[in-house]
Design brief:
Length: about 400
């Protein structure tokens, strides 16, 4: 197979390239230039590209290509971040980046190059099931009624490193052309392979910062588009404790950067219209909630399942699966005479062709710091069922 591999400069994609070559695939190394700020000392695009080029040369990959997506990345991802924080929510650009950049723009380049698939160093797996091999079973999350075959996104074998959360926005077409060579490996095994074959980036530490943007503090990054604006920090009884530089810079559960060092406080709510932030001493009470409303629902199979039904969900990466009941929001609203403040007045999405575009997710156990703007991912065992944006 002819494969376009996203070679990022980090060890995971480098080992993925090695494994694909071992399987005798025709590999093209592709580097994505998504963010470049020559004046920003934290921007590491140039360094990443040089490391990726060095890895390609080391592995004997003769085709190394750089794709410039800076304009599209700004329009699709960076502006999304700015708009989200300006509106008072905490967006998750990493999930969006995968389905709008890596498996959209990058995939388009792969098709133009005559490639059969796009490969990355993600820890996840894709399996294909045909209608004849696995008939529709009543009660399943989704079936084959509209498809001859279905592609499923599953967790990687190493659940501690599993990245299916970040890939939960991929659709059937994208999954059909995705390859994740590291799906059955642990992170330690990947490092071991890198050392065994003497990869030049074997000891390079993993990036823990904003997707493609680098080691820049979030407040500094947001300050490029959002102005500072002094406002009040309030306690739960509405007493003024101190002041902040802008409610849009803060997020739910945050405790640093509040200048309240004499006693730990946690952000439990904020309002960008009034530019006020409410904090509490007790994270275990004021940050715990049993349900959430999600919108912009994406179903991995392309078909909405029958609801309500039980399942599992994550409200953040690395969280353990949480038992929950998934239901439509319309049914929930029709049963209630009074709506709690987090639900009242929300603008729900219009129903999509697949239906069920707004959901109520009720957890068996209360969850800490459910943050509007973040992504909730639904699971059935190891399989990703879909995702949505938390309202």
């Amino acid at each position: 197979m002819r494969i376009l591999l996203w070679l990022s400069g980090w060890v995971d994609s480098a080992v993925a390239a090695h494994l694909l070559l071992q399987q005798w695939h025709d590999v093209i190394a592709g580097f994505m230039k998504n963010y470049a700020d020559e004046d920003n000392p934290h921007c590491q695009t140039r360094q990443d590209r040089e490391v990726a080029r060095e890895v390609a040369e080391f592995l004997g990959i003769t085709q190394f290509m750089t794709f410039d997506f800076v304009t599209e990345y700004h329009e699709r991802i960076i502006q999304y971040i700015y708009d989200g924080y300006a509106a008072g929510v905490t967006p998750n650009p990493d999930v969006l980046c995968n389905n709008l950049v890596k498996f959209d723009l990058f995939r388009e380049q792969a098709l133009e190059l005559g490639c059969d698939a796009v490969a990355t160093g993600h820890y996840a797996r894709v399996i294909r099931e045909t209608k004849h091999a696995s008939p529709l079973i009543k009660g399943d999350w989704g079936g084959f009624e509209n498809h001859e075959e279905k592609f499923k996104l599953l967790k990687g074998v190493d659940h501690s490193k599993d990245q299916s959360y970040f890939l939960s926005g991929l659709d059937q077409t994208q999954l059909s052309q995705a390859m994740f060579p590291l799906w059955d490996l642990t992170k330690d095994q990947v490092r071991d392979i890198a050392h065994q074959i003497w990869l030049p980036n074997a000891d390079r530490k993993d990036s823990q910062w904003l997707c493609f943007i680098g080691k820049v503090p979030i407040k500094q990054f947001l300050s490029e588009a959002l102005p500072t604006k002094t406002g009040n920090i309030l306690d739960i009884e509405w007493n003024v404790l101190w002041q902040h530089d802008g409610a849009h810079f803060l997020t739910i559960w945050q405790r640093t950067g509040l200048w309240l060092s004499w006693w730990p406080r946690y952000v439990i709510s904020k309002n960008t219209d009034t530019n006020t932030v409410v904090v509490s001493k007790d994270e275990h009470t004021d940050l715990m909630h049993s349900s959430l409303i999600a919108t912009n629902i994406h179903w991995t199979s392309g078909t909405a399942p029958a609801l309500p039904r039980s399942g599992h969900a994550k409200i953040r990466y690395r969280q353990a699966d949480q038992e929950c009941i998934v239901d439509t929001v319309d049914d929930y609203v029709s049963k209630q005479t009074e709506l709690s403040p987090p639900v009242k007045g929300v603008e729900l999405s219009e129903a999509s062709e697949g239906g069920l575009n707004n959901l109520l997710i009720t957890f068996k156990k209360p969850q800490r710091a459910i943050s509007p703007g973040q992504v909730v991912v639904l699971y059935d065992g190891d399989e990703v069922v879909g995702n949505g944006v938390i309202l």
